[in-house]
């Protein structure tokens, strides 16, 4: 399958050739065949075509204005469309208010009250002694770092833990970190996180998500937790996926996941797919602000966008949910994705402030 960059280049070539004027019947037939070959082809072309049309609109907005003389500040819309309602600055008849002269402003000195400072210093000393005592107890009993991290909807956060490991926390996610001399323990309470683990054979790095644990020493992987399943994507090294006992209390075997593995654990068991590391990396494009779809149902694509946006995509019927889409999209640019659906698919859009409902047509 061609990469996203190659598909974009091919789409740009077709767009340039079509608009050059040299467009025989044979070229149209070849172009139609290219569009039918993959959903990603059609999406890429529609996206470039929309950008091309928008650039034409920008040129039209600038018509009638001298290129070397931009309109005055605050008057751009009025210079093109409504000169009678232009926003004006202060005129000679309406002078702007002069700023206050602060050159001679003098602040009175604050009196020093030693009787009030003594209790504050004593309190600070007591807090310092308590902190030192707690650190000593933590070292004795193994607690070296404890923290709780979370992100809001649409927020990504990069963290560096006390052991040198790095964490990228996805949208609407939460982890609890407990580092000790014996173990590095991370509780994934919600959402998804990517871990680049610093190697330490004496202290395994354990991600706990419900009754399942992901164990590593020095590797790179992501763990995603949802109510229905747990997904593990490994991009470097080797990790171990442990499950708790089954309903009858019998222990379950561990699953080893090398680089390139994608494991999905649910109530039905664990399904592992292993391929090139580049394929696994594409599932983690959210770290750079993108979502990558490969012949994905619109239902699944909408669910991905909804993980990052407060304005939700809602599917109005089963027919629209079953449509297949492909392409590389910014998860923050929901409106562009919806416009492409309108242009290239049998989709009718009902846009509201808090949600966008998609209907088949």
TrEMBL record:
This is DUF4880 domain-containing protein. Residues 148-240 form the FecR protein domain. Keywords: Membrane, Transmembrane, Transmembrane helix. It comes from Cognatiluteimonas weifangensis. InterPro entries: FecR, Ferrdict_sens_TM. GO terms for molecular function: sigma factor antagonist activity. Gene3D superfamilies: 2.60.120.1440, 3.55.50.30. Pfam families: FecR. The keyword Nucleotide-binding does not apply. The chain crosses the membrane at residues 120-141.
């Amino acid at each position: 399958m061609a990469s996203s960059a190659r598909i974009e280049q091919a789409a740009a070539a077709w767009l340039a050739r079509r608009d050059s004027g040299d467009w025989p019947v044979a070229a149209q037939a070849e172009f139609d065949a290219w569009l039918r070959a993959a959903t990603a082809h059609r999406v890429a072309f529609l996206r470039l075509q929309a950008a091309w049309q928008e650039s034409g609109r920008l040129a039209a907005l600038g018509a009638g204005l001298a290129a070397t003389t931009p309109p005055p500040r605050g008057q751009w819309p009025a210079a093109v469309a409504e000169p009678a309602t232009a926003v004006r600055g202060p005129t000679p008849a309406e002078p702007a208010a002069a700023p206050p002269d602060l050159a001679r402003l003098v602040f009175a000195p604050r009196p020093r009250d030693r009787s009030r400072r003594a209790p504050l210093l004593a309190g600070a000393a007591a807090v310092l002694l308590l902190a030192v005592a707690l650190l000593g107890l933590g070292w004795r009993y193994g607690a070296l770092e404890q923290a709780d991290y979370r992100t809001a909807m649409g927020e990504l956060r990069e963290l560096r833990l006390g052991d040198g490991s790095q964490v990228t926390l996805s949208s609407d996610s939460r982890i609890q970190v407990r580092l000790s001399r014996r173990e590095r323990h991370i509780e994934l309470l919600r959402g998804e996180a990517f871990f680049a683990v610093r190697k330490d054979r004496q202290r395994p790095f354990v991600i706990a998500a419900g009754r399942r644990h992901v164990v590593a020493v020095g590797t790179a992987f992501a763990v995603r937790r949802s109510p229905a399943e747990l997904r593990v994507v490994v991009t470097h090294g080797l990790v171990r996926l442990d499950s708790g006992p089954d309903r009858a209390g019998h222990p379950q075997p561990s699953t080893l996941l090398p680089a390139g593995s994608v494991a999905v654990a649910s109530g039905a068991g664990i399904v592992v797919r292993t391929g090139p590391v580049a394929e696994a990396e594409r599932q983690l494009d959210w770290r750079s602000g993108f979502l990558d779809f490969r012949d994905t149902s619109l239902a699944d694509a909408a669910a991905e966008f909804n993980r990052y946006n407060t304005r939700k995509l809602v599917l109005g019927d089963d027919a629209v949910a079953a449509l297949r889409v492909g392409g590389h999209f910014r998860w923050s640019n929901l409106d562009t994705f919806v416009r492409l659906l309108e242009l290239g698919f049998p989709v009718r859009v009902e846009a509201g402030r808090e949600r966008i409902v998609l209907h088949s047509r």
